[in-house]
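Quick one - inputs below.
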Amino acid sequence: MKTACEMSCTLLSIVLLLSCISLSNAGITSRYMRRLAASTDIPEDSPYFKVPEGFNAPQQVHITQGDYEGNAVIVSWVTTEEPGDSKVYYGKEPGSNYTDYVVGTAGTYSFYNYTSGFIHHSTISGLEFNTKYYYTLGAGQSPREFWFVTPPESELDTPYTFGVIGDLGQTFDSLSTLQHYMNSSGQSLLYVGDLSYADNYPFDNNVRWDTWGRFVEPSTAYQPWIWTAGNHELDYIPEVGETEPFKPFTHRYLTPYKATNSTSQLWYSIKRGPATIIVLSSYSAYGKYTPQYKWFLNALAAVDRSVTPWLIVLVHSPWYNSNTYHYMEGETMRVIFEPFIVQYKVDIVFAGHVHAYERTYPVSNVKYDIVNALCTPEKNETAPVYVVIGDGGNIEGLAGVYTQPQPAYSAFREASFGHGLFEIYNHTHAYFTWHRNQDGEKVAADSAIILNKYWYSATSA
Ligand SMILES: [Fe+2]
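Output:
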């Protein structure tokens, strides 16, 4: 025989269960929030920033895709004592029996009272798909060997896993994110902007660009990071004569922009396995008639979804963000570009900038014009999913204050540091997971099956 208290508890449980079922499609604002205070940068003399041993040893080694198709890799590194040569020796076997090499270029740049080391960029072309290559830099002085695996050839049902990180910086939280990601199955990384946060230091102390280059080298030397520029790449200080936006970033981080007839390192497109990735610049002109606008429409039209079924857009400032941090900053770009990405059935848009995580339902908001007032986002299975993932762990800390109530388009939001994985299974299904740093790598704090927007439409029509 149950007591009155037990019966009321049972009744309450049933009511709660029913309310959960009826709200099962409502968004979730996670109460799990950590470290709202600013994070601390790792000291300059830390082992995580260690300069490799040996005279003129190559450091800050990083690679990115070097062409549109995936048969080329740009290898970049820095030497400090003297230029040395810009040769990359490479081959399919480790050791020194390389048969091939390429010669790139080396240069320096100055920023206020800082002068960079010798920054080398060499592009290896003509690589085979889905093949492991070894490469050596600094031959004849202090050689260092690394390796990478080229992507599979673009075909309809090619599995591939991308990692996603944004706003990393170089704090101990950044280290946690990096280490978690390096334990994941990510094959290359979609980086959504704000790299070193050197501009948090007086006169954008570019020594912090060097420490960052060494900090991420354990990953960037072995798999391509696909770069997006953020506001912390602007490095614009007219008071001391630094008036060339993106100067350190563009000297250090090349992109294959010429392969898609882009006129700027800051916007470009690549095919990689089953995906086409289009990278945009939030801090360059994007209005109608501008170079970025015209290029973007051409890049969208050039995608063949029977070859690369998945279409991914990277941009720094998010177009859907219900955090109060950087609220509405991406709105003008959304208004201009969203009709095209809905039209071309972009699958997913990754953004950073906001130091928290948020995932939307598939959503569109493209009916508005200046007189009709139709400006409410609508759930639409053929529209993109938007992910904000600027939670890499930088010195500025987390953004923990959300607008209330949670908007209907927002599926999940939480202010914790972490990274994402976008696992493409075939031409119709992918799986996105977000991994907060407090959990083991195998744990997904948020996950969603992503249906391919192009093929979903084709099969459900
Ligand atoms: Fe940012």
